[in-house]
Amino acid sequence: MDGVSLAAEMVNAAEAWLRSLSGDQREEAQYPGPERDDPERTRWFYTPTDHGGLPLNQQPPRQQQLAMRLLATGLSTEGYAVAAIVIGLENVLDRMESWTRDWGRERGRDPGMYYFRVFGSPGDGAWGWRCGGHHVSVHYTIVDGRVASCTPCFIGAQPAELDLLAGGTLRPLGDIERAGRELARDLGERGQAAVLLHRSAITDIVTGNRPRVRDGDEMIHLPDLWRTRFTDGRISSLLERNDAEGEAASGYGPGEHRKLAFTTRPKGIPGSALTPPEQRRLLTLVEGYVRRFPEEIAAPWLDRYRTGGGLAGLHFAYAGEYASRGPVYYRLQDDRLLVEYDNTQAGANHAHSVVRDLTADFGFDALAAHRQAFHGAGA
């Protein structure tokens, strides 16, 4: 991953935001850098929990703008538009739930509860930043003036589909869901059973919010996807009930979860087994995920799949019916890329999508090389 000019843009945006903050705000906004190897840097969430950092609702408008400018450096124009829509959907979700969710705070569904944090000082040999809140979690690690990691990158949507005026429909992740369903349907119709992991969709992404993805990882259940366990019995009971209802609806038990577990050897059907039209569908699907990142990151990543046999080792796996509606889960995986998508909760109107780089999540390897070079120089 190169990202030299992008890293410089991030330095400017992060510095501008940090300069705008008061001393108290900066204590929340800035954290020790990646060289300290503090687990807080790799602790991430996609639930409406405390993500760590300075939330938007504790910043006046100009600071909010500077924070969003930083977020925009880490996403393409299209990716930023989707993230901004997802943040705004908190207001819609609040109404859908009759204003009842609080998650132990003053307002549970709150577009102001998106947290920003910088790790280290922008422009240092190793530094990073993140933005995290309900259904948006963006992470960057910059090492020696280059973007070393842009993942994990999570974007979800609740509601996943929303009626608009004059018969319109808003589906922030609808196209990547449709593309996955159509590819699975085509493969199913020509008897490619290897694509199907299970007739029922699992209730969440399998790798969850783990800092590192490892062979054998199974789905993390809802009560464990928060910064801390709730002591409020009302909230903990709600989470446990929602988790139990999701498991009952999916029909999953220990055996099913083992079958859907992440494995370093990809599950599903490889691109080499697809017809040319199916390969074009697969490429469209990959583009739908990688193009959430800025062009400086997306273009070289996608070039791997556009040339030679780049798609040959990319596997596609699916769980759920082949219908155009209803619960769905699918996965893309090769030696580098891991994508998971699910839309199962809330009557299949609550979608999750995550992109992970199995070679570079959180920049672990780049940071290790940086530390070795630094100490080797006699520091």
Short description:
This protein has 379 residues and is an alpha+beta fold. Helix content is 37%, strand content 18%. It has helices at 4-19, 23-29, 61-73, 77-96, 174-189, 233-250, 254-260, 276-290, 295-306, 345-348, 364-376, and strands at residues 30-31, 54-55, 115-119, 126-133, 136-143, 146-149, 153-157, 162-163, 169-170, 196-198, 269-270, 315-320, 328-333, 337-343, 351-357.
Q: How many individual helices?
A: 11
* Number of DSSP strand runs: 15
Written as H for each helix and E for each strand, in order along the chain, the element string is HHEEHHEEEEEEEHEHHEHHEEEHEH
Largest sheet: 13 strands, mixed
Question: Low-confidence parts lasting 5 or more residues at pLDDT below 50?
Answer: none
Using only CA atoms, what is the Rg? Answer: 20 Å
Instruction: Give the domain tally.
Output: 2
- N-to-C span: 26 Å
Q: State which percent range the strand residues make up.
A: 15-25%
What characteristic shape results from the CA principal axes?
globular
Helix content range: 25-40%
Class inferred from helices and paired strands? alpha+beta
- The whole-number mean of residue pLDDT values reads 96
